[in-house]
Amino acid sequence: MNDKTETNTRLELLSAILMSLVVISISWSAYQSTLWGGIQTFTLREVTSAGLKVSMNTLQQGQYSTVDVIMFMEYINALNNNDQKHSEFYYDRFRPDFKLAVDAWLETKPFENPDAPPHPFVMPEYKKSYSEEAERFATEQAIKLQEAEQANHNSDNYVLMTVMYTGILFIGGIVHVFTEKIRLELLVVGWVIFSAVTFFLLTMPIAPLFE
């Protein structure tokens, strides 16, 4: 075997190794991009679900607060009219959470004490449970949205890796038509690009298989 044949054999071997590694890297990048795309889809579903829960709890709280206000106004009217029957009627039908706030407000002697709180809705005892739930789901929604955006970013980056590796395949596909010197130079360029792209590939997050 002469020197030229031996050189060509080595170049072909280096080219074959490079192309094999590139194909494996493309397959891995495409696989990861698909996984991250799936994670994004399911996470966005959780975002939508959390958003619906925010709306439902906000609406529920609005309905309860409206009922509380109406019944409290009727209760105050009955007190002002010294109508014990109707004042007790409304008081007995207050929601348990609201009744605690009314009791705490009455203890401040609002009809005698000018410094008393104006109404029970500003009392610490007046709990807005549905509003608190809505805030919790809103926080969850924001977190899930960030996760979905990150998953989309990861998927895009893996697609970019695939495109860059494809460029190396192009080099490998045309290298055989050139002279020995140019083939060597193209292979060096291909290996340099492969090393740089692979370095970034190894720093990218890997999608979990099971969650």
Q: Which percent bin holds the helix content?
A: over 70%
Per DSSP E runs of 2 or more residues, the count of β-strands stands at 0
Averaged pLDDT: 86
- Provide the structure class: mainly alpha
The largest sheet is: none
The gross shape turns out to be: rod-shaped
Q: Spans with pLDDT under 50 lasting ≥5 residues?
A: none
| Strand content range | under 5%
Distance between the termini: 57 Å
Total helices: the number is 5
Order of helices and strands: HHHHH
Radius of gyration: 35 Å
Number of domains: 1
Quaternary form: single chain
Characterization of the model:
With about 210 residues, the chain is mainly α. It has one domain (about 5-205). The protein is built from five helices and no strands. α1 runs antiparallel to α4 (about 130-175). It is rod-shaped, with a radius of gyration of 35 Å.
Descriptive key words:
single chain, 211 residues, mainly alpha, 80% helix, rod-shaped
Topology, please?
Elements: H1 3-80, H2 84-92, H3 96-107, H4 129-174, H5 180-203
In brief:
By secondary structure, this protein is mainly α. The protein has five helices and no strands. The longest helix has 78 residues.
